[in-house]
Amino acid sequence: MKYVNEYRSVDAVKQCADAIHRLVTRPWNLMEICGGQTHAIVRFGLDDMLPSQITMIHGPGCPVCVTPVEIIDKALAIAARPEVIFCSFGDMLRVPGSQRDLLSVKSMGGDVRVVYSPMDAVQLARQHPDKQVVFFAIGFETTAPANAMAVLQAERLGLENFSVLVSHVLVPPAMRAVLGSPRNLVEGFLAAGHVCAVMGTEQYQPIVEQFHVPIVVTGFEPLDIMQGIYMCLKQLESGQVSLENQYTRVVRSEGNPAARAQLDKVFVTVDRQWRGIGTIPASGWALNEAYARFCADRRFAVQHIVAEEPSECIAGEVLQGHSKPHDCSAFGIRCTPEQPLGAPMVSAEGACAAYYRYRRQRAPSPA
């Protein structure tokens, strides 16, 4: 408990906030990448502790939120097949597709199961050789090593009835897309510490140099985030930008070499569609040809499925930082956690879910 208390110390967070007030001389817009960081900021009111000149823009760092509708529709088509046991983490079951969600498929008799690890799905494939077991492999770089391990384990066991529906997305290309947009407001980033724990920090240096923006790798406790904000603002105020690591207790510059080796063995970089944002070049992973036999898209011939976002949902605007959840006319009325229009309302890391849970007053958008 001493460790947790240290990083949630109210006095330490307040001292850091006071230092930020003394430091800031002009307006700045910062983006936190991870949805977990967004929830911490909103839950603990960290943005309310900052000077009025500082705007925190909530980024596209929620893997559930950025999974496109067409991938959800592919999952629904596969899960509805009688020979399939469809495995997913629980937060995906209520993410809406074009017409329904995985929970609806389950209620209509589909064998949809919540698992806590992709290895659970591998075990189900061993236990049910008469069924096709599919694991819904979504997420950023953080969850990808475990999914790669599941594929390697299935290969080692000779499982012919295991496959994965892959929708992995990568953080650096998304940051480049945000910075390269003509509507960009972001002047500094808080990078996601858990992603960097896997991939390291080296991939962010070219972004710093190309766009001349500070990037601070940050943890998830309130003090982590407030320290990351201070470090980012200190750079901006001085005019000297660099890549810094606040999360040194977890993140190393080289990341996790063993995990990265597994990723290189199983996956290949591809263009990937992001929900509400569109296609970002080289922003995702897919199984490479050596492991293509484990690809659920091919096994169940669902590559042809395409879908469009609901017109009323402004998830894309929220994920890119152009709007806040309260700017949506459906927020809290026609879009709630029980009846979501878009993934950011139902996801445990979604910005809309955070605002719905912790603050329902109207909030201004970044100017």
Fold blueprint:
Layout: H1 2-8, H2 10-23, E1 28-34, H3 35-43, E2 54-61, H4 63-66, H5 69-79, E3 84-88, H6 102-107, E4 111-114, H7 118-127, E5 132-139, H8 144-157, E6 162-169, H9 171-180, E7 188-192, H10 193-199, H11 205-211, E8 215-218, H12 222-238, E9 243-245, H13 257-266, E10 267-274, E11 278-287, H14 296-299, H15 315-319, H16 343-346, H17 351-358
Helix pairs in contact: 2-12, 3-17, 7-8, 8-13
Shape: globular
What is the CATH superfamily classification of the domain at 65-168 and 265-299?
Answer: HypD, alpha/beta domain 2
Q: What is the structural class?
A: alpha/beta
Model regions low in confidence, pLDDT < 50 over at least 5 residues: 1-5, 361-367
Helical content, roughly?
A: 40-55%
Average pLDDT score: 90
SSE string, helix = H, strand = E?
HHEHEHHEHEHEHEHEHHEHEHEEHHHH
Strand segment tally = 11
Level-2 CATH architecture of the domain at 65-168 and 265-299: 3-Layer(aba) Sandwich
> What fold name goes in the CATH topology slot of the domain at 65-168 and 265-299?
Rossmann fold
User: What is the C-level CATH assignment of the domain at 65-168 and 265-299?
Assistant: Alpha Beta
Give the N-terminus to C-terminus distance in angstroms.
40 Å
Sheet with most strands: strand arrangement: 4-3-5-6-11-10
Strand content: 15-25%
Tally the helices: 17
Q: State the major sheet.
A: 6 strands, mixed
Q: Rg to the nearest angstrom?
A: 21 Å
